[in-house]
Amino acid sequence: MINVIGLGYIGLPTALILAAHGNRVVGTDYSKSLVEQLNRGVITFEEEGLEYLLESAMKYDIVFTTEYQATDIYIIAVPTPYDKNSKKIDPSFIINAIQSVLQVCHEGAVVVIESTVSPGTIEKHIRPLTMHDGKDIHLCHAPERIIPGNMVYELQHNSRTVGADNCCIGEQVKNMYASFCKGEIVVTDIRTAEMTKVVENAFRDINIAYANELVKICRSDGLNVYEIIRIANMHPRVNILAPGPGVGGHCISVDPWFLVGDYPGLANIILAARNINDSMPEYVLDRIHSIMKERSFMDVSRIGLYGLTYKEDVDDVRESPTLQLLESMERHLSNGLKVYDPCVKKLIVKEQILDFNEFISEIDFLVIMIAHTHIKENFSKIKDKVILDTRYIVSGESVYYL
Ligand code: SAJ
Questions:
Q1: pTM above 0.90, yes or no
Q2: Residue 81 has what pLDDT?
């Protein structure tokens, strides 16, 4: 039996796909309401294919509970926030999970940590716990790589990394993942697995920061950044990502900070990239301001932000550029912009309007923060607005870009 701890964005799809491929799975989460909802067969967040995966898994052997199970194999998929001041990882969720596992697990159990951790975290914070407890368990690190929006496909097709203390345990964990994963599974040591994961996300952050820096350079010189990136990317060894209003989510906007916090003075490009990406919401505000001036547009209350999530077609708002922009406005003691997001059904900010037609009728100036499919299907409803399109998805006379 596999006990998956933490049934969030990573733990839930992982538990379901393991069960759907014939493994006996118990999913554990401390949230009673989440557990109840899953046992009723209702998914807890929107993700392509997740509902179907839950249906398939429930035909096999899976239950959801708030209790940790006595078993031989655990997968830990709990959050790893970072301390905003020191920029270092806050391992408290993983520590709590491991302590609870140690209370119930069998001697010799394998504990696979999927949560992203900074290099050295397992040696420094987790291994000492197992030594104090006296139980002989095997720690592994198998960081996830799936992308929200395409999780179910990527779970089955991405290659992945397993960090273990020895080949034997590494191979055992590899075989568990191979029950559903068709990609190559590389077995390595724990520190290499830890570092590889944060390196991957920092690489993407740097590439996006490059695109965002180009936006500022090109705007200052009246050049079209999108055309320049399009042409540059025709070079066989160039692949610049898309500029945007900032980088959100719980991964790319967080993991590079672990490297900055742990390697001060050494993680220089990584730090610069973080600062550039973090400056983008403020840059969007500057663009709004200059477009207002250019058009003699005075009424802030008739400006609307489209998109609250951190990226398109997901319902996750963690660290989202729109939330960063609203916070920045608040710091400047200003407010009044309206907000709408088709993927966020509950009120999470006071400026939010839940109905698209009402939102559209109350604004004249639309800022597209996120390129949800919904807006692409509703271009006809926004064609008479002044638009600042931060994602380069619409064109027209009254459309401005970053
Ligand atoms: N973004 C841009 N321009 C781009 C691509 C993304 O501005 O060209 C922005 C997005 O709008 C979003 C943020 O970056 O705000 C992050 O989105 P993302 O789609 O790049 O990545 P995540 O955070 O959804 O998922 C990443 C993935 N990592 C890499 O691609 C290296 C995923 O594979 C990881 O599993 C995930 O982080 C994680 O959990 O670590």
A1: yes
A2: 86
Distance from C-alpha of 147 to C-alpha of 9, rounded to nearest angstrom:
10
**Alpha carbon 5 to chain centroid, angstroms:** 19
- The angle formed by the CA atoms of residues 186, 53 and 39, to the nearest 5 degrees, is 115
Cβ proximity of 77 and 115 under 8 Å = yes
The pLDDT of 380-401, averaged and rounded, is 96
Ramachandran quadrant class, 392 (left: phi over 0; alpha: psi -120 to 50; beta: rest): left
User: CA-CA distance, 269 to 251, in Å (whole number)?
Assistant: 18
Task: Tell me how far the alpha carbon of residue 345 lies from the centroid of ligand 1, in angstroms.
Answer: 23
**Atom 4 in ligand 1: residue holding the nearest Cα:** 242
SS3 content of the chain, % helix, strand, coil (to 5): 45, 15, 45
Distance between CA 118 and CA 198 in Å, rounded? 7
Measure Cα distances from 60 to 18, 76, 173 in Å.
10, 21, 21
First to last CA, the chain: 51
- Tokens 């697995």 correspond to 193
* DSSP designation for 198: H
Atom nearest to 248 CA in ligand 1: 15
Confidence of residue 224 (pLDDT cuts 50, 70, 90): very high
In the predicted structure, residue 87 carries a pLDDT above the cut 80: no
